[in-house]
Amino acid sequence: MSILSLPVATLGTPRIGPRRELKFALESYWSGKSSEAQLLDAAAGLRIANWARQKSLGVTVIPSNDFSLYDHVLDTSVMVGAIPEIYGWTAGPPSLKTYFAMARGAQDDDQHANCSQTHHGHGAPAQNMTKWFDTNYHYMVPEFHSDQSFKLSSRKPIEEYQEAKCLGYQTRPVLIGPVTFLKLGKSADPAFDPLLLLDRLLPVYVEVLRELARRGAEWVQLDEPTLVLDLDEGSRAALHRAYVHLAQAVPDLKIMLVTYFGTIGDNLQTALALPVAGLHVDLVRAPDQLSAIAAGARGDLVVSLGVIDGRNVWRSNIPALVDRLTPALAKLGMHRVQIAPSCSLLHVPIDVKLETDLDSDVKSWLAFSVQKIEELSTLGRALGSDRAAVADALAASEAAAIARETSPIIHSAAVARRMVAIDESMRRRLTPSAKRADVQRARFDLPIFPTTTIGSFPQTVHVRNARAAHAKGKLNDEQYEEFLKEETARAVCWQEEIGLDVLVHGEFERNDMVQYFGEHLSGFRFTKYGWVQSYGSRYVRPPILFGDVSRPRPITVEWWRYSQSLTKKPVKAMLTGPVTILNWSFVRDDISRKEVCQQIALAIRDEVLDLEKAGAAMIQIDEAALREGLPLRKSQWKTYLDWAVDSFRICSSGVADETQIHTHMCYSEFNDIIDAIAAMDADVISIETSRSKMALLDAFKAYKYPNGIGPGIYDIHSPRIPEPEEMKNLIMLARQRLSDAQLWINPDCGLKTRQWEEVRPALANMVAAARHLRAILTPQT
Length: 781
Known about the structure:
Blueprint: H1 21-30, H2 36-56, E1 62-64, H3 72-79, H4 96-104, E2 129-131, E3 138-140, E4 143-144, H5 156-166, E5 171-176, H6 178-184, E6 186-187, H7 198-214, E7 219-223, H8 233-249, E8 254-258, H9 268-273, E9 278-282, H10 289-296, E10 302-308, H11 318-332, E11 337-341, H12 360-363, H13 369-383, H14 391-406, H15 413-420, H16 433-444, H17 461-471, H18 477-498, H19 515-518, E12 524-525, E13 532-535, E14 538-540, E15 544-545, H20 557-564, E16 573-576, H21 578-583, E17 586-587, H22 593-614, E18 618-622, H23 637-652, E19 660-665, H24 674-680, E20 684-687, H25 698-703, E21 708-711, H26 724-735, H27 756-776
Parallel strand pairs: 1-5, 4-6, 5-7, 7-8, 8-9, 9-10, 10-11, 15-17, 16-18, 18-19, 19-20, 20-21
Antiparallel strand pairs: 2-3, 12-15, 13-14
Helix pairs in contact: 1-2, 7-8, 11-13, 17-18, 22-23, 23-24, 26-27
């Protein structure tokens, strides 16, 4: 009997809403303008729309519990009761106030936090946050301890399955697998292995799965992306123990074990031996693993083929996929195959049809979440016995692929000539960093613990409204520039008033640290509704990098020149580095990422040299995303780090010794890449360390990192305002690891997303903390 179409699964879809409805609902609730009931109603509406959209597009395996108000890892922590004592929860379903306190922190007087203040005199800090594998999505890091206990505390997966069922949708609930959940977490005791908690955790998973089965669930999706990492035998044994236990405890519920973001590789034997009913594999990042899986899978194992890219926006060539997959289907058997994206569609925008202003050629090459689901539906029918019905869609897919491949707007002969001309002299500063430091120390004459910020200041409603008015023509260019100058002047004046040592201009003219530069470079296109979630209600619109990159004209020079004219203190020029522009864009896939990154580096180099020529003495080239681009397998690290560091040096190494190059990095575990960070040869690096209580500096201490370091002492991802004493304590912790001559004092990151009511007192407290320690300490070397 022929199969009309292969089953189509999505694994997960964007939860933010086509026009960021979730963001606005969250921020309205946080500000006290709307109630908890209104927030929950908005969330329910988004879930209903997601299920209906997938059903209408032909999805046959629809997920539930892929929605989250903030983060799916945080949801899992709350589900199993892994809620640290500081948040004051003891029993019963945790409230939204507790949930958001874990996500965002809480002030003493925060009416949206009911957490205990016993351990912190000025509010409860948020949980640590870091990148989800090698993506730009952030998750809230679970916290564990050796006496940790677990209990079913949130019934969200059960409730959302039931919600969908009542609407007529038979869904496949999604949960983070127990082993991945534990491996994502941390303990205050670095010697403690969270996997030792597996046997305490599994009963909660069993309770959830049994309740899902009792309510009619036939399948459950357990995400174990840890299977694409380098695993030791203990982790592999934990996976085996976990899934044997779950299979025996809930025999009537089929488990689809989901991997993504790379190859299973040397963990394949472990994965194929697990007693699960299905296995999903990423065939976009690791297409070569299909043959080994087809050869080694049990005869009754359902194999989910992740063949549509869930992390990039390029349209697929469906006829080419049909040709590629047909032999594998013949070997596996049509009856045991599903097709799906490589991973959850969380990482791509929702619908390209909303982009009415995007030029038609580039738009025709794109597929967002809706279009990717349509591609899956077409592919499923083409691989089945319904190919004739989708003949037009197949022809259109092939035509788009050919048009993109042959388009004249992609390649530039001038860029190709510059790439060939890159030589070793473009990769090296004139003298070693220690000698440069002496020259720079004499030039700037800064005190110990010099204070600065990372770059941006609050993008208030006032600023955003002016930008929108300018875009709509309600403010002309001259009026908008005058507005921006006034904002910049106020920011520079205020920084002088509170006593910051090194100033910034605030970046009021910039919409986003990557988009702003992309808008001034060739090879980029931009969307209006192409939002993806970074964390919580923080969404970004990654530029679409479709062609060769160059810089037609200076970008930041005039704004730096204006801001420096307002003060005698040094004003840092602020740039985004090539690796971050690459990693935070949807990048073309027709040439290597290394080549794209070097093209961007040449463009940024031009800007650096123009800034220095204009008089900029400090130039910050942010590489916030350097580590997140790191391959998940250590065997591939060196290749990436070599070209990533090389790209940074290409853009930063053309300046004189007295020009101080700064860089900034976000949420990074530095121990394993400290050699690469040192090889960047930046004069000053600032990093995010406040949530880790300076533990991230251990790598710099052990390595004896020689250059300046600004360990963040103020967590900007939380609305709470740290007191001077708290900041002084963090500085003292930093002094245990670094010399006073190295230390700079700054927030964790840019302040764009915060409010001035938070920023003003927090930065004033930061300056006060640094000044107090200058007065009472004898500098150490």
